[in-house]
Amino acid sequence: MPSSVSVLLYSSNAATRAQVRTAVGRSPAPDIPPVSFIECATLPAVLLTLEASRIDACVLDGESTPAGGMGVCRQIKNEVFRCPPVLLLMGRPQDAWLATWSHADAVITLPPDPVEMAASLAALLRV
């Protein structure tokens, strides 16, 4: 078992990134090693991180600007070889069809509920 797991956390909003980190805590589940977040606020940073680092899962904010997490998700799912699983954060449940279009592996709504956030991320990290 690895000593930690790497999670790319993309949001143009620092408060949203803080909410996700707080919701996940040190680890999303007892059987998951501690999480090491790699925070990105821009699409170029996401692409560079995915190219340069071993990432176990991505958490993308669908409400980010100017590049929304749904579009970022679709782009990395189509362009990144062995793309890690993606948890997409959506502003509205009505946008679930867009999450399907983006090829997200899991979706939750903002603000992230700590129990739902931890369970969703843990499920992706177990794959």
Explain this structure.
The longest helix has 13 residues, at 114-126. This protein has one domain (5-126): Response regulator (Rossmann fold), CATH 3.40.50.2300. It has a five-stranded parallel β-sheet, with helices on both faces. With 127 residues, the protein is of the alpha/beta class. The protein has five helices and five strands. The relative contact order is 0.21. The two termini are 13 Å apart. It has helices at residues 14-24, 43-52, 69-79, 96-102, 114-126, and strands at residues 5-10, 35-40, 57-61, 86-90, 106-109. Helix 4 (96-102) links the parallel strand 4 and strand 5 (106-109). The chain is globular and about 35 Å long.
Features:
five-stranded parallel sheet, alpha/beta, 41% helix, Rossmann fold, 127 residues, globular
Radius of gyration: 13 Å
Spatial strand order of the main sheet: 2-1-3-4-5
CATH architecture: 3-Layer(aba) Sandwich
Span of the ends, CA to CA = 13 Å
- In total, how many domains does the architecture comprise? 1
Mean pLDDT: 96
Order of helices and strands: EHEHEHEHEH
Beta content comes to 15-25%
Report the structural category.
Answer: alpha/beta
Approximate shape: globular
User: Stretches where pLDDT falls below 50 for ≥5 residues?
Assistant: none
Work out the number of β strands: 5
* Count of DSSP H/I helices: 5
Q: Which CATH class is shown?
A: Alpha Beta
Q: Which fold name corresponds to the CATH topology?
A: Rossmann fold
Query: Helical percent range?
Result: 40-55%
The largest pleated sheet is described as: 5 strands, parallel
The name of the CATH superfamily reads Response regulator
